Amino acid sequence: MKKTTILFLLLNLVFAQAQTQKTISSDWTSFNQTIDIQTSVKKKFKVIASVKVETAEPKAWAGVWARVDNKNEEDGFFDNMSDRPVKSKEWKSYTVEGTIDENSKSLSFGGLCLYNGKFYFDKFELLIENTKGVFEPLTILNSGFETVVKNGEIPKWSLGTRKNSVVKVKEYKITSDKSNVHGNYGLLIEGSGIVVKETGRIGNVEGASPQIGTMISMLEDLKDRVERTVKNMSQYEIDYLHDDKANRIGSLIMHLAAAEKYYQVFTFEGREFNEEEKK
After folding, report:
1. Does residue 171 belong to any structural domain of this protein?
2. Span 162-176, pLDDT tens digits
3. pTM to 2 decimal places
4. Which structural domain, as residue segments, surrounds residue 233?
5. Which residue stretches of the chain are H helix?
């Protein structure tokens, strides 16, 4: 009995170490499931789900997404519907189609939503091509969200984009809802209190010439995009080095900060760095 108890505690410890969890502030959120895959030939797959959006925010949207992680750590297939965002207030079925091959290690899929509004999801399906070219359904746990949400957690699904890295976002409330396309429940993710920053606006800076205005607005836009991407990264992610030819994200940020500082000194003070600033 004592050995069994010790083994149980060890297993719990291993699971706790394998699955990290953090709470962040962000203007988007996601949920996922991940399956391990192995194939010797290239195959097609489909992820299908029903989605609808209720919002007064013009930039708000939702989508179905899928990502293939490869054995060699290189980028595999990825699609999050950013080029065809879901904005309809009516339930509709959406499909993401991709491929897996001999280098594929795992397939992650789920839903995502951005900005303020109510985002509904239901009836997820996963189909993978067999040797005869016919799409066969694979089992998805709690695919229709009939096992209801408890304490903001979706049974059998993980919050975030990776299986063992749970990410809860403060701005989003997750509940079960009677609005659905199949069964008794659908999933509702409601975003609120998100300040939508204007991005991609270049030029027209008050008090600046057209050339200087363009440069200032480009730097501001770059700063906002870098901050949005990096602010919730872990120390490991910031320091990660893909290969000896790449640059760490942390180093890249330092380069950008130095470039902006040099630009400001050279442009507005009409000088280069002094000896103290060069250190």
Report:
1. yes
2. 888 899 999 999 999
3. 0.73
4. 210-278
5. 2-18, 210-230, 235-239, 249-268, 275-278
